[in-house]
């Protein structure tokens, strides 16, 4: 096969419920120039059996590694094995939207020096129904410096995993994902890539991110102390890269964002009185920032974009 222009890395584990729809969304796109690397650590064969159904329709490479459970390790392996200069990640429960392949081709052609291409994504429920959108607080269709991206991204991870396209060589230079981070490895990775070169934020919606009760971000966040530690590790790791003149203000908003995230996770798993205390704690964390800090937090945290679809999904019973 000729060298692909894009490698799609799919870290998979117990994905039988979702992966057929995910692969179908890819199969409806032009597949010339694609390479799809599925690394499956599922304990049973049902997921890999579904993947094999697409062998005649997609340029698939299925690797079964039951010894490689963490998604970060599978992703790092997939990027190492990728044959293309540009790579993206697709989880077993997310989808591509119509036009994804042509959009990515144009991104690379128009901004060949960018190491990271970001884009908004749609949020869907477990049935595939649209709940909202997830955008980045960045200028569109222009070359952005890593420092500019960092000042926004360090406050909250506003990047949805299926949307970005990145240079493989930049990923490898950055050391790949930290497999000690179960909740925040992607946030840490986008921050590292932002520091490795220029970034472009595109306006097209080409992916869908699925929210459901069994996702890792939901089940993992039930231990508040560990949840907080995961975010603080990433923040502390990248604080020194912030511009000195506004580092203190940005750090305050970032720590308030962590407090809000922990409070909301606590509220989701406690009784009524505890929910009120957790939400009150989140509000106080934001109010303590003052007017300019509140504006920064609301802009960069994307709190309403992230929270509203999940509430909508729970109210409809589709979570």
Order of helices and strands: EHEHEHEEHEEEEHEHHEEHHHHHH
- Under CATH, the homologous superfamily of the largest domain reads Spore Coat Polysaccharide Biosynthesis Protein SpsA, Chain A
Report how far apart the termini are: 41 Å
Fraction of residues in helices?
A: 40-55%
Kindly report the CATH topology of the largest domain: Spore Coat Polysaccharide Biosynthesis Protein SpsA, Chain A
Number of domains: 2
Description of the molecule:
This protein has 319 residues and is of the alpha/beta class. It folds into two domains: 6-210, Spore Coat Polysaccharide Biosynthesis Protein SpsA, Chain A; 218-316, no CATH class. The chain is built from 13 helices and twelve strands. It has helices spanning 19-27, 46-52, 71-81, 100-110, 146-153, 168-173, 185-194, 216-219, 224-238, 247-267, 272-287, 290-301, 303-316; strands at residues 6-12, 34-40, 60-64, 86-89, 95-96, 116-118, 121-124, 130-134, 143-144, 165-167, 199-201, 207-210. The strands form two sheets. It has an eight-stranded mixed beta sheet, sandwiched between helices. A hairpin with a 5-residue loop joins strand 7 and strand 8 (130-134). Helix 10 packs antiparallel against helix 11 (272-287) and helix 10 (247-267) packs across helix 12. The radius of gyration is 19 Å and the shape is globular.
What's the quick description here?
The protein has 13 helices and 12 strands. The protein is of the alpha/beta class and 319 residues long.
């Amino acid at each position: 096969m000729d060298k692909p222009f894009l490698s799609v890395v799919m870290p998979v584990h117990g994905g039988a419920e979702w992966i057929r729809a995910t692969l179908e969304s890819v199969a409806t796109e032009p597949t010339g120039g694609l390479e799809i690397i599925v690394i499956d650590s599922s304990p049973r064969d049902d997921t890999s059996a579904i993947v094999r159904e697409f062998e005649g329709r997609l340029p698939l490479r299925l690797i079964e590694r039951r010894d490689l459970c963490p998604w970060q390790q599978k992703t790092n392996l997939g990027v190492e094995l990728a044959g293309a200069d540009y790579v993206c990640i697709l989880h077993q429960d997310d989808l591509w939207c119509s036009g994804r392949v042509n959009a990515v081709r144009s991104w690379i052609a128009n901004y060949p020096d960018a190491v990271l291409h970001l884009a908004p994504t749609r949020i869907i429920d477990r049935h595939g129904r649209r709940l909202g959108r997830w955008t980045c607080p960045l200028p569109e269709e222009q070359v952005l410096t890593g420092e500019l991206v960092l000042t926004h991204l360090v406050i909250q991870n506003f990047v949805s995993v299926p949307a970005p396209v990145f240079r493989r060589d930049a990923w490898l230079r950055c050391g790949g994902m930290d497999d000690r981070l179960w909740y925040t490895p992607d946030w840490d990775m986008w921050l590292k890539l932002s520091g490795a070169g220029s970034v472009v934020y595109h306006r097209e919606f080409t992916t869908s991110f699925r929210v459901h009760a069994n996702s890792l971000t939901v089940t993992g966040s039930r231990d508040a102390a560990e949840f907080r530690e995961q975010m603080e590790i990433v923040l502390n790791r990248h604080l020194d890269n912030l511009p000195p003149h506004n580092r203190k203000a940005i750090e305050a908003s970032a720590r308030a964002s962590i407090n809000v995230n922990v409070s909301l996770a606590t509220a989701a798993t406690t009784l009524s009185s505890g929910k009120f205390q957790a939400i009150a704690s989140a509000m106080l964390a934001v109010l303590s920032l003052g007017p300019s800090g509140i504006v920064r937090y609301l802009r960069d945290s994307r709190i309403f974009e992230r929270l509203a679809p999940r509430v909508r999904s729970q109210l409809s019973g589709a979570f």
